[in-house]
């Protein structure tokens, strides 16, 4: 059985298959109309969401299936103190697949450890958002015709932006992708992505402070919102909230075929005047999200009993109750889960649930 907790839970081949299937669905929608009749998707959303939840719902409905779940943890047994693991053990009796969004990092991973049905991570804290990644990969493919060889600029909140973390991981498996990181010092990409993903996979990246100095090199400009809800220090948020604004003047310096992506919602980082520029792909990206989720749900259910499609071997990990994960937003610091860690090549200890540093 396959879960999708992190983009690398799918092999590169499985990822490409899902992107290709999404394209087939776009071209032959009627062929898939009843393909998941009598199947149920449970959407367990412990954190606000518009696009992702509606997109999962629309995807399942277009495949002929049904949807149940909650969009507010307060209306579920969580408010009575139920753990993620227990909620999943209950819900799996009512559904064939679960999409979970949670503010605690690692929650969908905990769910996948106990579930008998596929779990899809629909976003966990600032950690990962693999279905947005599939959306982004499909969008780049449709806008540019290829992913290999692109130069992509990530702009904005690269620290808390989970969509950025997941997309960089996925792109590290394509050929000759160059990454330019455009962020203020306070919002730079976390170290674990730089070391464990970029350095390890040989992704060529550099860090800059303005859009203007690099826009002419880019095939994709990936804008992001400053993630207000993740800041512990509101003064810091105020300092960085308006760091970058894309407008028509800046777009003048871009290639004729550059695509502007944004996982949305936007706050003020892209001026509405850019929307009518043919390179503004962010609303097309939303529709791609529905098609790719159709392809994902369809594939996970098809692969469920196929020994060819199993979860990848996890990095060797160890249990040590004297070590603490330093991330207060990690599920291991809130729910009674096993304390599991991995050692990186540089000797650092990282938490299995959220990838953050841990120590005694
Ligand atoms: N919708 C995206 C997410 O859930 C981006 C954002 O919220 O800024 O991560």
Describe this structure in words.
With 360 residues, this protein is α/β, with parallel strands linked by helices. The protein has 3 domains: 7-130 and 287-303, Rossmann fold, CATH 3.40.50.1370; 145-282, Aspartate/ornithine carbamoyltransferase (Rossmann fold, 3-Layer(aba) Sandwich), CATH 3.40.50; 318-359, SH3 type barrels (Roll), CATH 2.30.30. It has 10 helices and 14 strands. The protein has helices at 12-27, 51-62, 84-91, 107-114, 130-144, 162-171, 191-201, 234-240, 248-251, 282-303; strands spanning 40-45, 66-70, 97-102, 119-124, 151-155, 178-182, 204-208, 220-223, 259-261, 317-319, 324-325, 340-343, 349-351, 358-359. The strands form 4 sheets. The chain has a 5-stranded parallel beta sheet with strand order 7-6-5-8-9, covered by helices on one side. Strands 2-1-3-4 form a 4-stranded parallel beta sheet, sandwiched between helices. The chain has a 3-stranded antiparallel beta sheet with strand order 10-12-13, with no helix packed on it. α7 links the parallel β6 (178-182) and β7. α3 crosses α4 (107-114), α5 packs across α6 (162-171) and α5 packs across α10. The longest helix has 22 residues, at 282-303. The radius of gyration is 20 Å and the shape is globular. The model has no long low-confidence stretch (mean pLDDT 94). The structure holds aspartic acid (ASP). The site of aspartic acid (ASP) has 8 residues, from α6. Residues 123, 129, 162-163, 225, 227, 263-264 line the site of aspartic acid.
């Amino acid at each position: 059985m396959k879960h999708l907790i992190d983009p690398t839970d799918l092999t590169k081949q499985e990822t490409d298959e899902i992107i290709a299937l999404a394209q087939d669905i776009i071209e032959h929608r009627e062929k898939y109309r009843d393909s998941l009749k009598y199947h149920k998707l449970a959407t367990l959303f412990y954190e606000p969401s518009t696009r992702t939840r509606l997109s999962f719902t629309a995807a399942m409905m277009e495949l002929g299936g049904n949807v149940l779940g909650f969009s507010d943890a307060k209306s579920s047994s969580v408010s009575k103190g139920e753990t993620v693991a227990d909620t999943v053990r209950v819900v799996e009796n009512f559904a064939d697949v679960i999409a979970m969004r949670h503010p605690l990092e690692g929650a969908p991973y905990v769910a996948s450890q106990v579930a008998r049905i596929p779990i899809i991570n629909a976003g966990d804290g600032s950690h990962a958002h693999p279905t947005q990644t599939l959306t982004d990969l499909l969008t780049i493919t449709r806008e540019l015709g290829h992913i290999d060889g692109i130069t992509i600029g990530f702009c904005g909140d690269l620290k808390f932006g989970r969509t950025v973390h997941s997309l960089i991981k996925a792109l590290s498996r394509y050929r000759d992708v160059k990454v330019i990181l455009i962020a203020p010092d306070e919002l730079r990409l976390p170290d674990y992505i730089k070391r464990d993903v970029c350095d390890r996979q040989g992704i060529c990246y550099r860090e800059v402070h303005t859009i203007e100095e690099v826009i002419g090199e880019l095939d994709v400009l990936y804008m992001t919102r400053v993630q207000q809800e993740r800041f512990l220090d509101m003064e810091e948020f105020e300092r960085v909230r308006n760091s970058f604004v894309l407008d028509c003047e800046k777009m003048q310096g871009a290639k004729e075929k550059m695509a502007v992506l944004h996982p949305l919602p936007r706050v003020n980082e892209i001026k509405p005047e850019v929307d009518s520029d043919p390179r503004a792909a962010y609303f097309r990206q939303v529709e791609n999200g529905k098609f790719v989720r159709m392809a994902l749900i369809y594939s996970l259910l098809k692969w469920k009993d196929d020994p060819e499609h199993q979860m990848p071997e996890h990095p060797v990990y160890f249990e040590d109750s004297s070590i603490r994960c330093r991330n207060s937003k990690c599920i291991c610091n809130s729910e009674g889960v096993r304390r599991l860690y991995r050692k990186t090549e540089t000797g650092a200890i990282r938490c299995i649930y959220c990838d953050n540093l841990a120590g005694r």
